[in-house]
Amino acid sequence: MTETPSIVLGVTGSIAAYKSLELVGRLRRKGCKVTVIMTANACKLIGPASFEALSGNPVALELFPDSKPQNIEHISLAQLADVLAIVPASANFIAKAAAGLADDLLTTVALAVKAPVLFAPAMNVDMWENPVVRRNVKQMTALGWKMVEPETGRLACGTTGSGRLASLDRIESEILVSLGWRDDLKGLPLLITAGRTEEPWDPVRYISNRSSGRMGMALASAAARRGAKVTLISGPGDVPAPEVFKHIPVLTAAQMHQAVQRELPRNKALIMAAAVADYAPKNIASGKIKKKNDGDITLTLKRNPDIIQLASAKRKPGTLLVGFALETDNLVANAREKLIAKDLDLIVANPAKTLSGENIQAVIIDKRGGTIKLPAMPKPKLADLILDRVAKLTGAA
Ligand SMILES: Cc1cc2nc3c(=O)[nH]c(=O)nc-3n(C[C@H](O)[C@H](O)[C@H](O)COP(=O)(O)O)c2cc1C
Prior knowledge:
Blueprint: E1 6-11, H1 19-29, E2 33-38, H2 40-45, H3 48-55, H4 73-80, E3 83-89, H5 91-99, H6 105-112, E4 117-121, H7 125-129, H8 131-142, E5 146-147, E6 151-154, E7 160-164, H9 168-178, E8 189-194, E9 199-202, E10 205-207, H10 214-225, E11 229-234, E12 246-249, H11 253-263, E13 269-272, E14 279-281, E15 301-303, H12 307-314, E16 320-327, H13 331-341, E17 346-351, E18 359-360, E19 363-366, E20 371-373, E21 377-378, H14 379-394
Parallel strand pairs: 1-2, 1-3, 3-4, 4-5, 8-11, 8-13, 11-12, 13-16, 16-17
Antiparallel strand pairs: 6-7, 9-10, 14-15, 17-19, 18-21, 19-20
Helix pairs in contact: 1-3, 4-6, 5-8, 10-14, 11-12
Bound molecules: flavin mononucleotide.
């Protein structure tokens, strides 16, 4: 699987088809690429344009499209899928899939796909309870196709009974489990800082650093995907913030410090991945400082608050603190010194050359002296390894 999981979402002719629109948004917010295939009857209930807009991808409709695609679409769609999810699955589609029919694009993809296949049926109670449907469902489950069983409740036809599409929470969670994702941080309140800080010296100029914010955003994204209640405090960066429980954008180290002090008591752990400027201009001019024709100017810098050290001093017992150390020399020795001086639980040491890249080479050091030297890897992968440690140390896993 690539770093961006690919979900192929099949939508069939059930009245619940509109609910899949929200599912597309949810999956995209979790960082998945979503490609939608609709049956002809699904299109009579809801238009493909909404799916196209929400997924950001063309909707696949035809087994034999008028315009010749560059490859054989049903095969390329099947190969694209890390999971094929049929939501909602009509009684008709279930029957065709159980019989191994391949008479339209979606049934053909369902036969060709090698990835896990998941069905979320939705239909009238009498259809759902019909012995033929029961037999089909039983056969398909025995063949390894996952059924997210419908719920009991009020149905679109006005009756009450089983057949209502399972909740999107359940469907989303089953899709993520099929991708091999864990929800081991479920409900854990986690504070993460990301990005760099910018320290102004007049209304148009500032000093900062080269951090891209990728590592912190990867941590926030992975933690949210694993179920944590993430509060993200982020300064400027080159990558967008993922969808999290609470996002607090800031600009300066002083603002980040204030936000961390305010939010920390509500959280079980702080991961301080932001690249905070150590110094800020002592004075900020209210108007733009004029360029002189010759001569230099002097900028006096003052020390910014050491956010993680102050958090460490004020934390409630049991609050876990994870710091980052970016070093050009003596990586491990300097990082270990920081860990001890600031009384952190974990520190992630990385050489300065990985500052704004896609990959990172890190050493994870814990307060008992354990040291894991990791090879260079994509930042999202390191994020998961750090979160594995956080899950263990907070008792979440
Ligand atoms: C308004 C309307 C709502 C429908 N809702 C459902 C439904 O919720 N579940 C179902 O299995 N069939 C439902 N049907 C019937 C299917 O659309 C029909 O069986 C169709 O052949 C399904 O085609 P498909 O499986 O290729 O998408 C509905 C039909 C209409 C007209």
